């Protein structure tokens, strides 16, 4: 039964599914481009039947996968990530240390160095097969001694995977780099003011940028992280060839879950686009997705939104300029992966009211693919067309949409050069897929070089 006292994260389009299923030969409306041959994998929280994890972010990770091949939607399947937490192991051991395999692995799924990794920011990555079966946790031959963010960044030129781990206990922040082949080749502690909740970061061709923001670890009832007025806010710029050497720039306090992209401009400034919450917006949002004491209907009404902001960091002047780029409330910003750390014109995002958005930084305009009041869009992942010398938006956007009652879902395929236009294709999924977090398109050539599993 759903009532106003049922947590928001167990209702409607967020309601978990009770089991693992498979379906083959999915109905397709429109025409799937044959170039889309691979897998769209998406992660999200899905508590076990009857379980209330206490917060949207605390459900066990479940992967949803849709296999496309040469114009057909061959299968859909969903699988829990079989972590230590799913087996009931506690994250905090009796001696106060953390079991980084006893995590939910519920936030993102990526491919790197021939391995598909399910990620969550307080734990080790979990390797899964292309068919979504769990292989096990990966500490990169024992070299990773911290957690791994769910938002690593792959440099499109070197193939290196830059990431960090943060912790409520010292060291609070550690930077790491995997080679293109998947070997952990660098780790360096980054001095930071305190135990900040750092969900995402940015890289450019030459720098990492850390967001040291005032959502900090505080042992309070139910919610271990909260806003700290005294903490301040700053951006940390670290040359990638001098790990650990960070220069901090003060900014107005705010919170950011997600970075869109960052790059160096011709003047040597760092341009950083983010989905930014004000203090009031993050407080309302945090309450709405957690164990709201004020009633969940009230929390839903009060939930805040993030808006697209640009920070321009000028190292020569020692300043950060802040500008709001659009009025739209949005989240899950994404870009063409081949532009990560490089100048991008387009940024994609989702809006609770306007559907899937494409922001054009050159024109300052936003194109929207509306889904109507009864459907919510998941993160829109850009898949390049693969054409030689393609234009930036030459490709497709993939998003799993879910009706607000949670009963039905589609994999939506949009032409990224015509986001507002009719979908290229819609794949009917066999049931509602709970709205979740992040995912990746994994083309078959990446599956073929998979080293993880027989
Ligand atoms: Fe995220």
TrEMBL record:
<feature type="binding site">
    <location>
        <position position="151"/>
    </location>
    <ligand>
        <name>Fe cation</name>
    </ligand>
</feature>
<keyword id="KW-0223">Dioxygenase</keyword>
<comment type="similarity">
    <text>Belongs to the carotenoid oxygenase family.</text>
</comment>
<dbReference type="GO" id="GO:0046872">
    <property type="term" value="F:metal ion binding"/>
</dbReference>
<feature type="binding site">
    <location>
        <position position="438"/>
    </location>
    <ligand>
        <name>Fe cation</name>
    </ligand>
</feature>
<feature type="binding site">
    <location>
        <position position="199"/>
    </location>
    <ligand>
        <name>Fe cation</name>
    </ligand>
</feature>
<dbReference type="GO" id="GO:0010436">
    <property type="term" value="F:carotenoid dioxygenase activity"/>
</dbReference>
<dbReference type="GO" id="GO:0016121">
    <property type="term" value="P:carotene catabolic process"/>
</dbReference>
<feature type="binding site">
    <location>
        <position position="258"/>
    </location>
    <ligand>
        <name>Fe cation</name>
    </ligand>
</feature>
<dbReference type="Pfam" id="PF03055">
    <property type="entry name" value="RPE65"/>
</dbReference>
<protein>
    <recommendedName>
        <fullName>Dioxygenase</fullName>
        <ecNumber>1.13.11.-</ecNumber>
    </recommendedName>
</protein>
<keyword id="KW-0560">Oxidoreductase</keyword>
<keyword id="KW-0408">Iron</keyword>
<keyword id="KW-0479">Metal-binding</keyword>
<dbReference type="InterPro" id="IPR004294">
    <property type="entry name" value="Carotenoid_Oase"/>
</dbReference>
């Amino acid at each position: 039964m759903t009532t106003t006292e049922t947590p928001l994260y167990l209702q409607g389009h967020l309601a978990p599914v009770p089991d693992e299923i498979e379906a083959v030969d999915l109905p397709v409306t429109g025409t799937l481009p044959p170039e889309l041959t691979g897998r769209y994998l998406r992660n999200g929280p899905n508590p076990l039947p009857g379980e209330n994890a206490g917060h949207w972010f605390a459900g066990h990770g479940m992967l949803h996968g849709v296999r496309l091949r040469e114009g057909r939607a061959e299968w859909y399947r969903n699988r829990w990530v079989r972590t230590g937490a799913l087996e009931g192991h506690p994250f905090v051991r009796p001696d106060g240390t953390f079991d980084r395999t006893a995590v939910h692995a519920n936030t993102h799924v990526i491919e790197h160095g021939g391995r598909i990794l399910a990620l969550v920011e307080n734990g080790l990555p979990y390797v899964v097969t292309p068919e979504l079966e769990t292989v096990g946790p990966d500490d990169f031959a024992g070299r990773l001694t911290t957690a791994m963010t769910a938002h690593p960044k792959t440099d499109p030129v070197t193939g290196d995977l830059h990431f960090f781990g943060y912790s409520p206990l010292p060291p609070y922040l550690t930077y790491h780099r995997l080679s293109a082949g998947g070997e952990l080749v660098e780790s360096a502690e980054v001095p930071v003011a305190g135990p900040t909740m750092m969900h995402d970061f940015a890289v450019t061709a030459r720098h990492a940028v850390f967001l040291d923001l005032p959502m900090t670890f505080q042992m309070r009832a139910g919610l271990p992280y909260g806003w700290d007025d005294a903490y301040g806010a700053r951006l940390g710029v670290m040359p990638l060839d001098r790990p650990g050497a960070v220069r901090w720039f003060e900014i107005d306090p705010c919170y950011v879950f997600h970075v869109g992209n960052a790059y160096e401009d011709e003047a040597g400034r760092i341009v950083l686009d983010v989905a930014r919450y004000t203090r009031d917006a993050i407080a309302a949002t945090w309450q709405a997705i957690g164990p709201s004491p004020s009633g969940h209907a009230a929390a839903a009404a009060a939930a805040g939104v993030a808006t697209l902001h640009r920070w321009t960091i000028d190292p020569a002047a020692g300043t950060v300029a802040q500008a709001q780029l659009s009025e739209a409330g949005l989240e899950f910003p994404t870009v063409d992966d081949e532009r990560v750390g490089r100048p991008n014109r387009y940024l994609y995002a989702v809006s609770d009211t306007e559907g899937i958005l494409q922001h054009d930084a050159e024109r300052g305009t936003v194109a929207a693919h509306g889904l109507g009041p009864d459907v919510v869009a998941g993160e829109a992942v850009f898949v390049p067309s693969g054409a030689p010398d393609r234009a930036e938006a030459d490709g497709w956007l993939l998003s799993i949409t879910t009706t607000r009652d949670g009963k039905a879902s589609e994999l939506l395929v949009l032409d990224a050069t015509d986001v507002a236009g009719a979908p290229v294709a819609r794949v009917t999924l066999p049931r509602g897929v709970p709205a979740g977090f992040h995912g990746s398109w994994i083309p078959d050539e990446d599956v073929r070089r998979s080293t993880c599993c027989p």
